[in-house]
Amino acid sequence: MEAAMNSVEIICPTCGESFEVPAPHESEVPCSVDYDCEICCRPMLVSFWEENGAVNGEAQGLGG
Ligand SMILES: [Zn+2]
After folding, report:
1. Mean pLDDT of 52-63
2. pLDDT band for position 4 (cuts 50, 70, 90)
């Protein structure tokens, strides 16, 4: 386990299941990262931002 690496729980826009992705460091947000859903394997774009000292993330579908 890497203590320095936080993870963020996101909800897949395609299947609605939640899973965790590694969060970027606070100094690197806001940013967006492509991920494939761990459950349905559909691609999504996860936007990260900092809020109250914590990194949050939210997924949106790529469409198509
Ligand atoms: Zn999914």
Report:
1. 92
2. low
Residue identified by tokens 């993330």 is 57
Distance 5 CA to ligand 1 centre (A): 23
Question: Distances from the Cα of 51 to the Cαs of 9, 14, 36, in angstroms?
Answer: 15, 26, 24
Gap from CA of 21 to ligand 1 centroid (Å): 13
pLDDT single digits (tens) 11-55:
999 999 999 999 999 999 999 999 999 999 999 999 999 999 899
Helical residues (DSSP H) of 13-62, grouped into ranges: none
d(CA 20, CA 9): 4
**Alpha-carbon distances, residue 52 vs 26, 49, 55, 59 (angstroms):** 11, 10, 8, 20
